What does this fold into?
Amino acid sequence: MKRREFLKSTAVFVAGASISVSALDFIDPKEILAANPDLRWGFLVDTHKCVGCGFCVKACKIENDIPYDANVTRTWVERYVIKKDGDVVMDSPKGARDGYTSKLLDQNHSGMLQVPDEEIAQAFFVPKLCNHCATPACVQVCPVGATYQAADGVVLIDRTWCIGCGYCIMGCPYGVRFFHPVEHVADKCTFCYHRISKGGNTACAQACPNGARRIGNLKDPNDPVTVALMTQRVGVLRDEYGTKPQVFYLGLNKEVR
Amino acid sequence: MKNHVWRPLFVVIAIVIGILLFRAFYVPSDFGAQERGYTFGYHRLSNEQEWKDYPAKYKGNDYCNECHDDKIEELESAHHATIPCENCHGAAFDHPDDPEKLVIDRSRGLCIRCHSELIMPSSDRNDIPGIDPAEHNQGEECSECHNPHNPSLEDM
Amino acid sequence: MVEQVAQMIVHGEAWTVKDLFVLPNEYVYWSIQIVMYPYMTGLVAGAFVLSSLYHVFGVEKLKAIARYALVFSFALLPVAMMPLMLHLSQPFRGIHVLMTPHFTSAISAFGIVFMTYACIVAVEIWFVYRKFIVESIHRLEKLQNRNVLENLLLPFYKLISLGCMDISEKALQADHKAVKIMAGIGIPVACFLHGYAGFIFGSVKANALWMTPLMPVIFICSAVVSGIALCIVSYYIFMEMRKWAAKRGKNWLLPDAMAHGNATMRVEELRSVQEHEVKISSKYLIIFMTLAITLEMLDMIFRGYTAVKSWDALRMVIYEHDFMKIFVYQYGLGNFLPFLMLLWPGLTTRRAVIASILVLFGVFMMRWNVVIGGQAFSLTFAGFMEYHLPIIPHNLETFKEGLGGMLAVIFTPFIIFYFLNMIFPAFMTDDESH
It folds into this structure.
């Protein structure tokens, strides 16, 4: 290529690229979504609205046949108490299946701890569930293809194929997976796939009296969850792992683990 | 006896062929990389439908409304209207066929899920009227004084 | 509601003690069997590498122990799989790893790498013992009245001879060459087999202690160390047993003699062979130990120096919760003490063996500290989990993932080796070996 030709083609390329980049600036994100009308399930948690009643945990356990008294759960609620001196105390007794009814914080082996009322700077609840990540670490590490992501983004487990090695449980940075006490295979939140795929709500979101939990189609620009994501400041949990979680939180702060 | 050194190789090849034959017979035909590709979507396709067919236990207020529309209407103006029926009345399953009657949870434990007083600045829990379960009429069921559907004593 | 209480076991609850803030689903899911798994795989790989030192690099001095290490490595092979089978919640589905391997997972390679490796070791043994197999067929056929064992062995030998009875000089030359090639291919595969066991841990990004690219290399080095150490220890013990048994004519302790009736070994000869082999092997042990310790130290220093978010939790585990296990048992008793013992002038066989036992213990503790230590802190970095090895089993799970399962895994290779010795005498001292 001659030098002149090279310069010319470069100039054309740079000009063309700058036009297309600037053209993108004027496209409304809603239009991009509207042009792509398929399905991607996502979840929005409003931590302000959560009052720690634990009805979601109870409903989830019954809806999905997770033995009620077993100390594993597909969803749970955490309590964060931030003291005026900056210390953070957290607990989640039985995953908050019975709600938060006591000021005592369950520190497991270290026993119960009470933070005096006047020392509390702020305190709040954070519901947790499977993040149905865009690049799920748990699916990547499954040696047999027993756990997978469906086209609509939901991560599921094939109970007839799971060998029970526990690698996915180790691979999940959010601790949402466990061994099902009866099925003896890995288990976790399915976003109530049986309900949402029939147009229903998840059991946890339905049980929530305050609307702290909402499921929605992230590819539908008119879905309330999508609207909230586009108009409000939301955060996700542990994005440093590169899993691109799809459960979004309103009112998340740095103390949340 | 030439090339006896290749004999173990034939045995190994036979083993590999054996495994591949068994695999063809053992692995379900719909197993493979689906829409999310090999990394995230390698699975047995029919499992998705199996999860979709999982039976639901909670049926939602609309289901209750089909028969108990009077109760739902009565509840609408009350404080507790935001609480779904099944939270206290229990999951519907196939009610009224099975179970014929739902067992209502009237325990104190249910009420104090929200109404045990906690100091929770920066959470809506702070705005809910709360009591100290250890001091507030201990041993008695809340429903003895409070109407669960409209618990404010002033409204009664 | 459905009654499901009957057989309800939360996997991990029996042996996990949680402290402070731990997520509800967090338990020590990978317990003793996952400690045993890399340990046993490491022994397999290490024993094979030791045997290859002679077969590939022609370290003549290791001739006798090389043959023993090869057969012992084969006896260890099925046992490397055993901890996994004991660990799986669905052991009968273990075959799925071969049926639908998902290669983005480190574990999926297990089925294929393991099979490849097993084939290589089997083929190498076949070439090493081919002459012996053919001779045994001739010898057994000539026998007038064979006992039960000999009646079993003859058809078996005929089967594994693969119909090849040629033991001419030219054929044996070809065998010799094949052994060298198989051992040569075997070294990288053995390293891969074990390196990927390290990769299983090193690639878990959710685990702050495991996630390091050094993990596979550390695993390979410690594998070779533990493999050589086990060969030294077991070689010594077997030789002592053979000396003792040969003196008293206790043939049941000499399975090869039982099968082939030629255990006319002289005690003095055994002693000199044993001393020689043990001392030479321990030289190689020191080399690999230096490498392993250096890498482990590098990893530890690097973590402390870079001190990323997880370091606060890791420091608590390393310097407080697991201090004894890491610095006293693993580094102190398991690394530095044997290191000094092996380097001290005037090495005796007994000292080398005791040092090797300590090395075996040290590598075991290293596996323990990686596997259990990696689960000693919560994903939240705000809580800790302690693992209590179930000693007395009260159900199948606490047996499988408890002391019982661990002992089963430790003793099975010796039982296999006993019977394998009848077929392939590992202590043959005549010069038909290659």
